[in-house]
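Data follows
____________
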Amino acid sequence: MEPPRLAHAVGSPTSPCEEVIKNLSLEAIQLCERDGNKSQDSGIAEMEELPVPHNIKISNITCDSFKISWDMDSKSKDRITHYFIDLNKKENKNSNKFKHKDVPTKLVAKAVPLPMTVRGHWFLSPRTEYTVAVQTASKQVDGDYVVSEWSEIIEFCTADYSKVHLTQLLEKAEVIAGRMLKLSVFYRNQHKEYFDYIREHHGNAMQPSVKDNSGSHGSPISGKLEGIFFSCNTEFNTGKPPQDSPYGRYRFEIAAEKLFNPNTNLYFGDFYCMYTAYHYVILVIAPVGSPGDEFCKQRLPQLNIKDNKFLTCDEEDGVMVYHHAQDVILEVIYTDPVDLSLGTVAEITGHQLMSLSTANAKKDPSCKTCNISVGR
């Protein structure tokens, strides 16, 4: 690898160094980019005496930070004044298309005790693979750098959102949830062939499947949690489910108490939009003690089923009463199989609005309503 040439990020603030320091737990950091060729005017020269980092270790990985350390020979170690860190997103077909563009991710840091924390939501995205290499440097009196050879390149992957990040999303979603409306059923739309297949091949029971990659890129349930998708929003004027659906002309309806009751736990899963004015909230209902419940308990904020801003279940005069938020579209994931005999299947009279489908939908990373200050 070639040594870096110092440069500011494209479109950076008036004081880029001050802004970057807020997002990196390093000292005196500047964004820099590596020159593709050795340049005489770069102010950097090579010198073999400086130790080359080896045995690089990455630890304490979060969705927008990590710690890095390495071993070095003791020879000339006291001459090291800076570290050059070359961080690149590993390109693959599943890479995060919404990673911030045109921002260099080559860092220059003053030599500090290792391990060193690298943090920055504008160049680290959650659940994304990166490569990293390190170079030691000695800054000369005239401002030039003497540098070592680059270390070996290693790979690592950033983490999903933590409960702390999801709680931030939850709080933003609560702001726009709106008033609560009554509901009596959960419903799931599919094509006729889906229900025929369930009857013939699964003994009449809908089976949980792995959630797709719709929503926030850092959501810990995407591609991992198994469940069955249900809707519960009602029309304001009728109090009943809408007759249109993007998912199919046949609808399974089931009484709310059969899925959501004091024997289930409720979790907040995500908050997102798709470049539209309306927003989606993903909730997870899991029978207490089930595998889905254990999965969510470790990763998602749990909601009080009687008192939250999105979906409630409470007893009034001996009868279970249910309410849902009016101003967000709720996507409810139930984590256990559901037998069709517990409800009814019928054809809807409305239209199949494919444009409203959220299947593998990507979140708008620029929306101020549903984004937090970590990787999208």
